[in-house]
Amino acid sequence: MPYQCQSQWRPFVQKSLSTTSPTATATATTTTLKLGGRPCSSRSNSQSPSSQGTASFSSASFSSSSNNNEGGNTLSSSRGRNAVSLLPVYLSDARAVTKYHPVHAPDGALQLSVAENQMLEDLLVPAIQKFSSAFQHHDQIDDDNHDKHDDDFIGGFFHSDQIYYQQTHGRAGLRQAMGNYLQRILKLSTSTTLTDKTLDVDGIVMGAGCNAVLENLCFCLTEPGDAVLLPTPYYAAFEFDLVARAGLNIVPVHTRTFHSRGNNNEEEEEEGENAAFYYYPNRASLDAAYDCALEKGSQPKILLLSHPNNPLGICYPPSVILECIQWAREKLVHLVSDEIYAGSVYQSNHPETGEETFQSVLKLAATSSESSADTHHHGKGLGLGPFVHFVYALSKDFALSGLRVGVAYSENEEIRVPMQKLNDLCQISSQTQVTIEEMLSSPHRGQSDGGNTTYGTFGSKLWSTDSFLPENHKRIKERSQTLQNVLQECQIPFLKGDSGLFLWMDLSEFLPELPKGEASGLAESQESMDARERVLYLELMKEFGLLFTPGRSMRNELPGFFRCVFTAASEAEFALALERIKCFVTAKRK
Q1: Can you tell me whether residue 249 is helix, strand or coil?
Q2: What span, in angstroms and rounded, lies between the C-alpha atoms of 435 and 423?
Q3: Is the confidence at residue 347, as pLDDT, over 50?
Q4: Which residues of 572-588 are buried (b: 16+ CB within 10 A; e: fewer)?
Q5: For 94-108, 161-175, 297-311, 329-343, which range has the lowest pLDDT when averaged over its residues?
Q6: DSSP string, 548-588
Q7: Model pTM score
Q8: What is the dihedral sign for C-alpha 120, 123, 129, 132?
Q9: By CB neighbour count within 10 A (0-12 exposed, 13-18 middle, 19+ buried), where does 245 fall?
Q10: Contact criterion met (CB below 8 Å) for 563 and 540
């Protein structure tokens, strides 16, 4: 079923960033496209007066007319104002509400919308203190491959070379430690024989957070106005990360209408309209989004996957990932896999099939026998070819969002130097790099190499992968199961999570009634969907003290779905949240 694109949409062009209007108002363009008569949204930062309208979860508006004068606005640029307008409205709502405090605001809203893990401070704080102050590397090599000596340390805290400029893409020791860590959690080949494929450390770029390395990667793969295809629902901040400066157009890949009912009988019978397969991208849905972008003059350059998925809290099955890889290679579209939750998969195997829950795009792309990949493989790396890329960070799996440690990996040699140079704008501080290198390389508790093994090799156990992450998985799984039990008790439909820090809930039962004359289901107008969900969102937040992430802010196809971050609260706050959910359901069903 092809998209039917309306004519108002304009791709990003550099001209749109100029400040020419004396009364410019920055409002992010919401492009209306249609899939079988059903509108969807495409984002760019081009400006059109016709795009301005009532506030919704889709975008915020920022008026700067008071700063203008007769000669035009000389105090700020339109591109700066447009960047602000890309932030979803719900963020303003969330900042404005009184937050919960056990003493000062016991009736305040519980923050369950920010994807942070607040259950790990007891493990992390002592460990980071140790790693940042005591360096115990066995075979430590600096960036020039010179052995470290005791006299290279300053007070036991700094290496002497830390006070100088660093390699822009990261210190050699950190990149090697990160490569070893990724080999483990992604379950890539860990053999050191020459016949096995391993990550090429030269393809690793360490930057200040996942959004920074993702923006730089996409900047190196695209031109302004090119299209990024994103399966819905998706992480709302992708629109800011890829539009604000890179000037890309985000084209949603809607999936629900491209899955025939009755072909997945067992899951469909059990889960109904909330079955996970409705969210899987397939060749038909990708083709439709690709054609729509072309029709509007935007060249599709990137397919961006969130795997494990944010906000769904599930992993795509290997068959879905392989279909995306094959499609991208055939279309010569770059596949970028954001696997920031790869270390937060708490259900390792499918409960019924026994299939491994999470398989990295890197692993599947490396093992697939595509000639396009083999043609560009020169002996180093996994043999991904130039069209498969990967981003990750320690913000979620290690709850270290404040340290800003992100990583991009690509075997496309044409973008390596540009990526390294752009990373000059978002390097990680040398002290953080050394701390993280120590953290990722530190042996498992109670284990010593005895001088017989190489420090941090695949044969030894590490604190990060063999002590910390298993305990993290245990805690996340317990929280997830507790929330699932309450949702089942309240008869609230949800996706059965297997990864990440959140669950995807269907609260559409509690939406306001459809306006008179409004169609239902996917045929409902976007304005009606946004308005009805916003009423429910504000009711949950202001009347019941529950602050969830609204699904429409993440371009969900239907209204009434919310992401609940079950790790974003203390034990006491989480228990209170469960009681408030029960109170909400009871009050609404009276």
Answers
A1: strand
A2: 20
A3: yes
A4: ebbebbbebbeebbeee
A5: 161-175
A6: -EEGGGGT-SSSSEEEEETTSS-HHHHHHHHHHHHHHHHHH
A7: 0.84
A8: negative
A9: middle
A10: no
H helices present in 2-85, as ranges: 78-85
Report the alpha-carbon angle 112-545-505, nearest 5. Answer: 50
Phi, psi of 391 (to 5 degrees): -130, 150
Contacts of 247 (CB under 8 A, 6+ apart): 12, 14, 17, 44, 45, 224, 225
Distance CA 367, CA 378 (A): 16
Question: CA nearest 254: which of 223, 228, 284?
Answer: 284
To which H or E segment does residue 504 belong? strand 502-506
User: DSSP of 314-376, one letter per residue?
Assistant: -PPPHHHHHHHHHHHHHHT-EEEEE-TTGGGB---B-TTT--BS---HHHHHHHS--HHHHHT
Instruction: Answer for the pair 454, 443: CB distance below 8 angstroms, yes or no.
Output: no
List 522's β-bridge partners, or say none. none
pLDDT band at 354 (very low <50, low <70, confident <90, very high): confident
Cα distances from 149 to residues 142, 182, 301, 548, 575, in angstroms, run 11, 28, 48, 52, 52
CA distance 452 to 462: 16
Mean pLDDT of 249-253: 97
Which residues touch 477 (CB under 8 Å, ≥6 apart)?
A: 346, 347
Nearest C-alpha neighbor of 23 from the set 70, 59, 61, 57 = 70
Q: Would you list the DSSP string of 184-198?
A: HHTT-----STTS--
Q: What are phi and psi of 367, to 5 degrees?
A: -90, -15
Between 510 and 381, the more confident residue is 510
**The pair of three-digit structure tokens given for residue 569, joined into one six-digit string:** 């609260």
Q: 9: helix, coil or strand? A: coil
Rg of the Cα trace of the chain? 24
Look at residue 55 and tell me whether its pLDDT is greater than 50. no
**3-class DSSP state for residue 527?**
helix
Which token pair is 199? 């990550």
Q: Count CB-CB contacts under 10 A for residue 163.
A: 10
